[in-house]
Amino acid sequence: MDYTVGFGETVNLAEDVEVEFQAVEEDTRCPLNTQCPTQGNARVRFKTITHRGEFIVWLNTDPAQQTSTLFDYYGITLRKLEPYPTLDPQTGTSTIPDHDYEATVFVIKAATPQ
Fold it and tell me: What is the residue extent of each domain of the chain?
């Protein structure tokens, strides 16, 4: 199932599983109103919590990098990160304030505890 979580927010899932959107550690995605030699990447850090502990995971928007991983008995995939950068013609930058970010993640139970 897909969940949308805002920057600094936590989504509570079934079975006491939580996913917290902690940080955008890098955002080099090509701004929408420009042309770039590559699509760039956004690297996002999440803290996941289960009854077995806390796990830090990093996921990327670039499909050539890690977009999915496992934590405890669950799998998590970064589906998208919004907003997408747009180049400001006056400043020549595409900075996005942290509080504006929203991540959409897919979380699934990947295994059954033994």
Answer: 2-109
Rg of the Cα atoms in the chain: 15
The whole-number pLDDT of residue 101 equals: 98
Rounded to whole angstroms, how far apart are CA atoms 56 and 47?
5
Quote the CA–CA distance of 13 and 62 in Å, as a whole number: 26
Q: What is the three-class DSSP state of 100?
A: helix
Phi–psi pair at 15, nearest 5 degrees: 60, 30
**Burial profile 95-113: b = 16 or more Cβ within 10 angstroms, e = fewer:** ebeeeebebebebeeeeee
Residues paired with 3 in a beta bridge: 105
8 A C-beta contact, residue 47 and residue 20:
yes
- pLDDT, one tens digit per residue, over 59-93 is 999 999 999 999 999 999 999 999 999 888 888 77
Output the CA torsion 78→74→54→22 (10° steps): 10
User: CA 76 to CA 78: how far, in whole Å?
Assistant: 7
